[in-house]
Amino acid sequence: MSLEKKIRAAEKALEFVETGMKIGLGSGSTANEFIKLLSLKIKEGFDIEGVVTSQDTENLAKESNIPLTSLQEAKSLDITIDGTDEVDSNLSLIKGGGGALLREKIVAYNSEKLIIIADDSKKVDKLGNFKLPVEVSIYESSATNLNIIRKLEEVGYYGSSSIRKSENTNFITDSGNYIYDFSLGSIEEPYIVDQLLNSIPGVIGHGLFIDLADIVIIANEESVEILSK
Ligand code: 5RP
C-alpha cells in the first residue's frame, strides 16, 4: 500500500473531525498517518481528546502531543478512525493484522461512528483471503484452538490455523494473549462465524468486525471512494 494512498485516505477522514470531539485512535500504518495529521490540527487549535487502541498508537499519540483519555473518563466517543486488512461491500471487516483487534473492537463499539481508512487493495468481494486473527487466552490455548477448528468444521469451514509468532517466540498481544491466524478460504457467512467464535470459552476476541463500520474511505491512485451504510 503506497504511502500516498494512506495519506489520502487519512486526509479525507480528517474532514469528519470537529473540534471538541473525543476520538478513538486506531492502530496500524494507515491509522498512524491519520494520527500525524490530527496532531497538526491540534497545533492549529483543535480541542481533541483521543483514546488509543494499542501501545504502539499510544507511543505515537504521545510523541504527536495528542491529549489522551480513557473510555472510562470519556464515557463514549464521537468517532473512531482505524485501518483494516479487508473490507467487503457490506462494510464487514477483517482486522487484526497488527494484533490490536481486541482493543480496536472495544474502542469501535464505544464510538458513535467508526470510519475505516484503507487503500483499494483492502476491498474484497468476500472476506477470508486474509487469515482471520483470533485472540485466545494463553491458558490451555491449544485446546481452545482445537475447539475453534472443530466448531468451524461443523458449519462448513475446513481450514487450518497457526499461532502467530514474533521472531522466534509466540506473539503476545497488548492484553497478554496469543493470536491464532485461521485460513478459512472465502467466509460466506461472517455473522455465523462471528457468533460461533464469540461462544467458545478461551476466545477473547477475533478480527471479524460486523455491523461496526459506518463509513469506509478507500483511496485509489487518483482519489477516494466512500462506502457507507
Ligand atoms: C491492527 C489492524 C490494522 O488496522 C490493520 O492491520 C491495517 O493495518 P495497515 O493500515 O498497516 O495496513 O487491524 O490490528
Could you give a short description of this structure?
The chain is α/β, with parallel strands linked by helices.
What does this molecule look like?
This protein has helices spanning 3-14, 29-43, 55-63, 71-74, 101-109, 141-154, 190-198; strands at residues 22-25, 49-52, 79-82, 86-87, 93-94, 114-119, 132-136, 160-163, 165-166, 169-170, 178-183, 203-206, 208-209, 215-219, 224-228. With 229 residues, the protein is α/β, with parallel strands linked by helices. It has 2 domains: 3-121 and 210-228, 3-Layer(aba) Sandwich (Rossmann fold); 132-206, 2-Layer Sandwich (Alpha-Beta Plaits), CATH 3.30.70.260. Strand 1 (22-25), helix 2 and strand 2 (49-52) form a beta-alpha-beta unit. Helix 1 (3-14) packs across helix 2. The longest helix has 15 residues, at 29-43. The radius of gyration is 17 Å and the shape is globular. The mean pLDDT is 97. Ribulose-5-phosphate binds at residues 1, 26-31, 82-85, 95-101, 104. Residues 1, 26-31, 82-85, 95-101, 104 line the site of ribulose-5-phosphate (5RP).
- The low-confidence parts are none
The CATH class of the largest domain turns out to be: Alpha Beta
Main sheet specs: 6 strands, mixed
Q: Helix count?
A: 7
* CATH-defined topology of the largest domain: Rossmann fold
Radius of gyration: 17 Å
Determine the structural class based on helices, strands and strand pairing. Answer: alpha/beta
How many β strands by DSSP? 15
User: How would you state the average pLDDT, rounded?
Assistant: 97
Lateral arrangement of strands in the main beta sheet: 2-1-3-6-14-15
Heterogens: ribulose-5-phosphate
Q: Could you give the order of the helices and strands?
A: HEHEHHEEEHEEHEEEEHEEEE
Q: How many separate structural domains?
A: 2
The fraction of residues assigned to DSSP E strands is 15-25%
Query: Architecture of the largest domain in CATH?
Result: 3-Layer(aba) Sandwich
